[in-house]
Design goal:
- The structure holds two protein chains of two kinds.
- Chain A is mainly alpha-helical.
- Chain A has one domain.
- Chain A is extended and about 55 Å long.
- Chain A has five helices and no strands.
- By secondary structure, chain B is an all-alpha fold.
- Chain B contains nine helices and two strands, in the order H-H-E-E-H-H-H-H-H-H-H.
- A two-stranded antiparallel ribbon of chain B has the order 1-2.
- In chain B, a hairpin with a 5-residue loop joins strand 1 and strand 2.
- Chain B is globular and about 65 Å long.
- In chain B, 61% of the residues are buried.
- The model of chain B has no long low-confidence stretch (mean pLDDT 95).
- Classes of the chains: A mainly alpha, B mainly alpha.
- Chains A and B meet through helix 1, helix 2, helix 3, helix 4 and helix 5 of A and helix 1, helix 2, strand 1, strand 2 and helix 4 of B.
Chain lengths: 110, 229
């Protein structure tokens, strides 16, 4: 089997294992990454929400925020894990397509 | 390490976009000259790997989470300029589709992970590998050390961006407008967790993939590294 084929398979396995990136932090009661809290968290951290931060934080509403579909946070971990895998598939597919497109443009016979 | 919207004031976000624009332009010019069509699948795999490895949040029990980025691996496999483009694509998709990293902070996040980490990692790897054989153990260790140090330099750069906000922006009552933590908090927090935990994850991931490729297909790894400029 060609090495690139094996690497694609490895990537597929990583996608299937990706919910570990959700479940392990949950299991070990780890919170957000440092400096990646939601605006509301600042009330607990420093007693107020910095004004500029509050305004800018809602600037963009991503279609699949935090790799989960809307209304799924309440449905629990199995459902979130499923959404995480779907997000990984969507994200990887779009990333690959964009890079292949760029790659083709940049290597076109000069 | 994905700075969200609102943590950086307009000055910092704007400057980082202004810094990245010429870097992206130079990257595409250089890659256009040097990229062989054989490398394109590797470019795509590197970007995809970077995207997915960043989803593997590693916990510090009862603390924070963090992750590897795959940026140094990409740099070794396709060269720093092509890796800059690959990691940029992963970061832009994360920001736009998944809200992981802010859209105003795309310049800043790309500077940290697609530029600083990529170039520090690439040149450290080259420096430590020296003229050793493509299958030598030295290259596996070089990949690990490069991953560890480069991720930490990127974390430091991120911490500095966070930490200068209280110096740049204050409200009338002296309250913070953007990231409220100064350099004295941001640097020890960001650097501490990356030195202790996440840097090791990047080191292991980078070294393991290089080791796998050495065993699996040394000719391919050699050819890749030769083309990687």
């Amino acid at each position: 089997m060609r090495t690139t084929t094996k690497l694609w398979i490895g990537l597929g396995i990583l996608i299937l294992l990706s919910p570990l990136g959700l479940l392990l932090p949950e299991h070990f009661k780890a919170g957000d990454a440092w400096g990646e809290w939601g605006a509301d968290t600042f009330k607990e951290l420093i007693g107020y929400i910095p004004q500029g931060l509050e305004k800018l934080s809602s600037l963009w509403s991503a279609p699949i925020p935090d790799y989960a579909f809307k209304g799924q946070v309440e449905k629990g971990l199995p459902s979130l894990s499923f959404a995480y895998i779907i997000s990984a598939i969507i994200g990887v597919t779009i990333t690959v397509l964009i890079v292949l497109f760029i790659g083709r443009k940049l290597t076109r016979k000069k | 390490m994905h700075i969200p919207d609102g943590y950086l004031g307009p000055a910092t976000s704007g400057i980082m976009y202004a810094v990245m624009l010429p870097i992206w332009a130079v990257a595409s010019r250089i890659v256009k000259k040097t990229l062989k069509s054989k490398q394109v699948p590797f470019l795509a795999i590197s970007a995809a790997f970077s995207f997915v490895i960043m989803m593997f949040n590693v916990p510090i029990p009862a603390g924070t989470t963090g992750h590897a980025t795959g940026a140094v691996l990409a740099a070794i496999l396709v060269g720093p300029w092509a890796a800059c483009i690959a990691v940029t694509v992963a970061l832009v998709v994360q920001a736009l589709l998944f809200g992981d990293g802010g859209i105003t902070a795309i310049g800043a996040n790309c500077f940290n992970m697609a530029f600083v980490e990529v170039f520090v990692g690439y040149y450290l790897y080259k420096l430590i590998s020296g003229s050793s054989l493509i299958i030598s153990k030295r290259r596996v260790i070089a990949a690990g050390i490069a991953g560890y140090i480069a991720l930490n330099i990127a974390a430091l750069s991120t911490a500095i961006m966070f930490g200068i906000q209280p110096l740049l922006h204050r409200g009338p009552q002296g309250e913070s407008l953007y990231c409220p933590y100064g350099l004295n908090v941001a640097i020890p927090m960001m650097l501490g967790e990356h030195l202790l935990v996440f840097g090791w994850v990047e080191a292991v991931v980078t070294a393991l993939v290089i080791k796998y490729l050495q065993k699996q297909d040394p000719a391919l790894l050699g050819a890749q590294e030769e083309m990687a400029v």
